């Protein structure tokens, strides 16, 4: 209901829920039969499904923001493929995955946008 309340389009809701469904056993640490297995600490990156999940999240983010009239102008002059790759590296690192992010801190990277 929260995604519906936020007026997220149904195709994006379905896509996000599909990603969540594929990672359920990883996040909850269940075996194939649905029973809990011994706890093994893993990064958030691994728990959410690794690179495919981060890539999907980045795609959803840009799909929404490039069409949202409130923010799409911020991306008008941007090289979107480069931004996507950069954000994927950043999120991978932030979530504890193997990344080579060498960009600026979040606040510094966005200070010229007046946000």
Structure, explained:
By secondary structure, the chain is an all-alpha fold. Helix content is 56%, strand content 0%. The model has no long low-confidence stretch (mean pLDDT 82).
The count of helical stretches stands at 6
The N- to C-terminal Cα distance equals: 29 Å
Classification by helices and strands: mainly alpha
Helical proportion?
55-70%
Report the average pLDDT across residues: 82
Name the features.
115 residues; mainly alpha; 6 helices
Question: What is the compact description of this entry?
Answer:
The chain is an all-alpha fold. The protein has helices spanning 2-5, 10-28, 44-48, 50-65, 80-94, 106-110. The longest helix has 19 residues, at 10-28.
What order do the helices and strands come in, and which of them pair?
Blueprint: H1 2-5, H2 10-28, H3 44-48, H4 50-65, H5 80-94, H6 106-110
